[in-house]
Design brief:
about 200 residues; mainly alpha; 10 helices
């Protein structure tokens, strides 16, 4: 999905000659002759700088969450998800994955799938959407620091993800639940671990 979106976005930008200017980076490496020791030191400094940036982003996310940003984003995405065809059982978890990251949302989806509380189709479509569009807060902040365009990695990404999931929902609605379970979803029994009483003696 990411490769396809990148290809489409690149062709659109080339066609319209948009975003052709140089990006403004937060930090530029110094030019000059570099030996192995200098290169190694630069790598350490770069990693430390990236750690500080990511730590700052995580702290900022915590502050934004305290001010109710997560609830605001949830109120925006819930109507969109229902129109896409993702049921209300998976809506909250999908919004968590979109806002906080796929590790959070995906983990909750797996947990709920084991419990059998979310329909298989909703689980599949929610994971597809989270795969295409997740961590919108931290990813957006990080890309802004790297000089990226908000239109490309946020707005365009959102439009592409919604259209892709909408099309997938419509296409898979044409097949039966039996075929869907066979080709797109592993039954719950696959994930069940046999208890000691079930093991042969």
């Amino acid at each position: 999905g990411a490769l396809l979106y990148g290809l489409i976005l690149n062709q659109i930008l080339l066609w319209g000659n948009w975003l052709a200017e140089s990006s403004v980076l937060l930090w530029y490496p110094e030019s000059g002759p570099v030996d192995l020791q200098t290169w190694a030191w630069d790598q350490v400094v770069g990693l430390l700088l990236m750690f500080v940036i990511l730590l700052g982003i995580m702290l900022l996310m915590k502050l934004l969450d305290q001010f109710g940003l997560s609830k605001f984003l949830q109120s925006i995405f819930k109507p969109l998800l229902s129109k896409l065809g993702i049921g209300k059982e998976a809506t909250n978890i999908t919004v968590i994955g979109i806002t906080l990251g796929i590790s959070y949302g995906g983990g909750l989806i797996i947990k709920e799938s084991h419990a059998g509380t979310i329909p298989p189709r909703d689980i599949f479509f929610a994971l597809v959407l989270m795969g295409l569009f997740h961590s919108i807060v931290e990813d957006t902040l990080l890309m802004l620091l790297l000089g990226g365009s908000l239109w490309g990695f946020l707005v365009g990404r959102l439009i592409f993800a919604l259209l892709a999931v909408w099309l997938l929902v419509r296409l898979l609605s044409l097949i039966s639940d039996q075929r869907f379970q066979r080709y797109f979803f592993k039954p719950k029994a696959v994930y069940q671990v046999a208890s000691p009483a079930d093991e042969p003696v």
